[in-house]
Amino acid sequence: MRYLLWGSSGHAKVLADLLGTLSDQVAMFVDADPAARPAAEGVPIIHGSEAFHAWVATLPDRENWRGAVAVGGGRGIERVALLRLIAQAGIRAGTLIHPAATVSPKARLDEGCQVLAGAIFAAGASAGEGTIVNHGAQVDHECVIGVGVHLAPRATLCGCVEVGDFAFIGAGATVLPRLKIGRGAVIGAGAVVTKDVPAGSTVAGNPARQLRP
Questions:
Q1: Is the pLDDT of residue 203 over 80?
Q2: What are the pLDDT digits (tens) for 127-156?
Q3: Are both 173 and 113 inside the same structural domain?
Q4: Could you say which of 56, 73, 93 is where a domain stops?
Q5: 3-class DSSP state for residue 196?
Q6: Catalytic residue annotation
Q7: CB 207 within 8 A of CB 189
Q8: 155 shares its domain with 61
Q9: Structural domain of residue 112, as residue ranges?
Q10: Is the omega angle on the peptide bond into residue 153 within 30 degrees of 0, that is, cis?
Q11: Are the CB atoms for 183 and 128 separated by under 8 Å?
């Protein structure tokens, strides 16, 4: 399968490497920055949405392409918008799972999700469109993750956690069982979350405390 990667910075390099392990091919990069260079040698790049649409209009075999968005961090709204833009152009979003990740057959990943090396996604867990489960992150049983969420490296969701759309869980953070993380919330790196986090809040520390509403 040939892939279009939207984004050409650090996360694009990670996804290009992942696709190589799956024997898929990165065949095109797109980046809004006119100065951006391809994240993989020998692969062409186009700049901006207008150039993307012009290129897609000349593509004879869209059914043989998949798209992925290499936009990580707390930019979940942007990531999901780009996934939908690609889909509207007739290129399906790929769901990428690294061979070194563990994903239960009883879990559910929606289109455009990315599960990177060393991650664990347990039975009964689900993740919405455009969610990233980064290197070594752990999602335990029956967690429900919304759209456009990013779990940074080695973040841990204990069982039955609910995470709202576009939340960001920082590197090494731990969310204890049966808690709710609100839409757009940010959990700082290394935080230990012991109670529900309201939508739009930023928390950090052990135990995690709100930094700003």
A1: yes
A2: 999 999 999 999 999 999 999 999 999 999
A3: yes
A4: 93
A5: coil
A6: 141
A7: no
A8: no
A9: 95-203
A10: no
A11: no
Q: Which residues pair with 92 in a beta bridge?
A: 66
Enumerate residues 6+ apart whose C-beta is below 8 A from 61: none
Q: What is the layout of strands, in order, in the sheet containing 2-6? A: 45-47, 25-31, 2-6, 65-69, 92-93
Which residues does residue 93 pair with via DSSP β-bridges, in sequence order?
67
Instruction: Give me the residues paired with residue 193 across strands.
Output: 175
Helix (H) or strand (E) holding 81: helix 76-88
Q: What is the DSSP annotation of 149-194?
A: -EE-TT-EE-TT-EE-TT-EE-TT-EE-TT-EE-TT-EE-TT-EE-
| Domain identity same for 99 and 182 | yes
Boundary residue ending a domain (63, 93, 123): 93
Residue 37, number of CB atoms within 10 A of its CB: 11
The 10s digit of each residue's pLDDT in 61-91 is 888 999 999 999 999 999 999 999 999 999 9
Provide the CATH number for the domain around residue 43. Answer: 3.40.50.20
Could you read off the pLDDT of 177-192 as tens digits, one per residue? 999 999 999 999 999 9
Regarding whether 104 and 84 lie in a shared domain, the answer is: no
Long-range contacts of 160-167 (CB under 8 A, 24+ apart): 164/199, 165/76, 165/128, 166/74, 166/76, 166/77, 166/80, 167/76
Structure tokens at 31: 């980046």
Q: How far apart are CA 193 and CA 177, in angstroms?
A: 9
Peptide bond into 207 cis (omega under 30): yes
The number of angstroms, rounded, from the C-alpha of 212 to the middle of its chain's C-alpha atoms is 25
